Amino acid sequence: MADAQSYIAESLPRWREELDEFLRIPSISARSEHDGDTRATAEWLCDRMRAAGLETEIIDTPGHPVVLGEWRGAGPDAKTLLVYGHYDVQPVEPLDEWTSAPFEPEVRDGRIYARGSADDKGQLYLHIKAAEAHLKATGSLPVNLIILAEGEEEVGSPNLVPFVEGHRQRLASDAVIISDSSMFAPGLPSLLFSLRGLAYFEVHVQGPASDLHSGSYGGAVVNPANALAHIISTLHDQDGRIAIEGFYDDVVEWDEATRQAIRELPFDRDEFQASVGASELGGETGYSELERLWTRPTCDVNGFLSGYTGEGAKTVLPARAMAKISFRLVSDQNPDRVLELFRAHLSRVTPTGVTVTVKDLHGGHPWKAQLDESLKSAATSALERAFGATPVLVGEGGSIPIVGEFERILEAPALLIGFSHPGCNLHAPDEWFPVENFEKGIRALAYLYEELA
Ligand code: BES
Ligand code: ZN
């Protein structure tokens, strides 16, 4: 056996079963009752990375542990790549909307259904197998490789920046490679040019000291649910723009070349609309859907809680109301600045008679790729070799807050190559990953390690 690609071919059936083992462990980082499972996942990963031929270590943090795998046999003159991924997953509710159980992987119609199959256990696994293929087939890798897997991405990576800062020397690398996003379309491999940032808040509105009879008090006591609905209604103007003073000050308009590249992508608006099942699409006036998703900031209510929501009618004036409100940000917006502007806005629009407090949940900076030509051409040929198609450049509306931090702390460019498909139900019931990209992803990454060398 002499080459990585034939090793991949013969290992695929075994690796598919092994992936299922990984997906079966419910590593839900947000839920403390799963802390044991999350640690067990880290241990499983550590064992698999060691078996792949990497030197491994589990490093504790104040939260869930980091798993580090290293192979430095290419020597000091060779390139060093840092692969980043996350082994934690999102909660699975609503459970009754899953066709098969979230932690019992099942293949249907060429798709591996399981929580984490796409985001991000399945994609992290591709990197480990690409490395294993080289190491087992040839005894070495064309590059030095560090694989860093964290267990807290889905809760905002609260401990990762200190970790990266504290291990700056050890993590020093020429590029950071991440597979935690999707391709533009099936069969069309993609390189990311941007991610949006995030600023996520909880807004609490307190009215009277306790719930009141809405007949005896309604009209004379300000209703916090009404007040919060009013506040939310002030967040956008008629054109779907965010009506917070100063909000767009740091928004950089995208260059014409990127806007043109976006227009040239094979985007089918009707198909997109049908895929979400909405009666019409909507957003900021003057921008196409892809521009809205990738190049423009947003403000969304993610949750709303107040009053009586049980069966039947209860005439109550609630004492309090709460909304979860998040902003997706584009460069050069800064989540801390957005918090200041949001607070100032709330103090302007909050009706008298209620008190508002804002809790800052988490945030992250937006990211724009700084792909130099060598990185881009290595990735392009690796993807061409595996997929038989030239990759397109795409943006992304979601966030991976650590990407910009890696670039800042390690002074190395990030390369984002995702292998899930649009509509993979990330964070939703019936998350899936295409079986076809299990093989192609491993092959592409095995080529990438060669091309980057
Ligand atoms: N893998 C996603 C990022 C992503 C989302 C990529 C959609 C491609 C499409 C990542 O795990 C994620 O979900 N990030 C969170 C942010 C985090 C701070 C909770 C997000 O975007 O909501
Ligand atoms: Zn996610």
Could you please describe the fold and organization of this structure?
With 453 residues, this protein is of the alpha+beta class. It folds into two domains: 278 residues, Zn peptidases (Aminopeptidase), CATH 3.40.630; 123 residues, Alpha-Beta Plaits (2-Layer Sandwich). It is built from twelve helices and 19 strands. The strands form six sheets. The chain has a six-stranded mixed sheet, with helices on both faces. A four-stranded antiparallel sheet has the order 12-14-10-15, with helices on one face. A hairpin with a 2-residue loop joins strand 4 and strand 5. Helix 1 runs antiparallel to helix 3, helix 1 crosses helix 12 and helix 3 packs across helix 12. The longest helix is centred in the first third of the chain and has 21 residues. The protein starts with a helix and ends with a helix. 43% of the residues are buried. The mean pLDDT is 97. The protein binds ligand BES and zinc ion (ZN).
Explain the layout of strands and helices.
Layout: H1 4-24, H2 35-52, E1 55-59, E2 66-71, E3 80-86, E4 106-108, E5 111-113, H3 121-138, E6 144-150, H4 160-166, E7 175-178, E8 190-192, E9 194-195, E10 197-206, E11 212-213, H5 224-233, H6 256-264, H7 269-276, H8 289-295, E12 298-306, E13 316-317, E14 320-329, H9 335-349, E15 355-364, E16 367-368, H10 373-387, E17 392-394, H11 402-410, E18 414-416, E19 432-434, H12 435-452
Parallel strand pairs: 3-6, 3-7, 7-18, 8-17
Antiparallel strand pairs: 1-2, 2-6, 4-5, 5-19, 9-16, 10-14, 10-15, 11-13, 12-14
The protein binds ligand BES and zinc ion.
Zinc ion binds near residues 90, 119, 154, 426 and 427.
